[in-house]
Amino acid sequence: MDAEMRYWPVVDVLPPGDAPICEIGSGSAGLSSWIGRPIIGVDPGPDERHGTIVALPNLRRVIGDGAHVPLSDQSVAATVAVDTFEHIPSHERKGVVAEMTRVTQAGGRIIVIGPTGREAGDADRWLLQTLRNPGPEPPWAAWLEEHMEMGLPTIDEMSALLEGPRVSRIRSAGYLNVSLWRAMHLAAMKGPRLGPAHVPVWGSFARVARRYRRGPFYRWMFVADLI
Questions:
Q1: Strand partners, 39
Q2: How many CA atoms lie within 13 A of 198 on its CB side?
Q3: What is the number of other CB atoms lying within 10 angstroms of the CB of residue 147?
Q4: Cα dist. 82→4, 66, 114, 149 in Å?
Q5: How far apart, in Å, are the Cα atoms of 165 and each of 54, 76, 169?
Q6: Which of 62, 75, 168, 201 is the most buried (most CB within 10 A)?
Q7: In terms of CATH, what superfamily is 2-226?
Q8: CB contact at 8 A, 86 and 78
Q9: Per residue in 15-48, pLDDT tens?
């Protein structure tokens, strides 16, 4: 369900049309699993933490990183980063935003969503400690350790990073209440196996979580409109 809560907000604010979207840090599939339009996934390369690479027909994977995006200027309708900036050292984040801006067309958007702020950092530390007791940690716990190492961006930091001469407007909104995020992970780790009831139960939970607009939030989304 956590994947739905990452990508649903992004899908809602994508520019209309069929022009390709660039996703920074797309992993094995990323945004291409949620929409049918062409996605150019920029990722440093194979990583066992992503799991099996999925060959979706609308995804073109290219080797690169956010600071060196191997695309032409203004070649995509939007550039997206989902749960990515918390894995980038703080002193490199401005360069990544500059590259996202460079490859995005006039009239397009930069969309960034991910864990943001102190409350999200506290939640990450709680989850990492919960995973360690009694242990052993699952492989994806390494992502949480990177959150600790790099530090989560703040709302003010992300808003300031997105400012620039081509930006006409910046919007931000919080998503996924922290208490609901914790409940989701506790149920996944320690709750009963639901079998055939899994999809309807968690589908209902996801709909409630998506509509619940009271903070504090685990993720924040930032949308910059470009001219």
A1: 21, 59
A2: 9
A3: 21
A4: 11, 12, 6, 18
A5: 38, 18, 11
A6: 75
A7: Vaccinia Virus protein VP39 (3.40.50.150)
A8: no
A9: 999 999 999 999 888 999 999 999 999 998 765 5
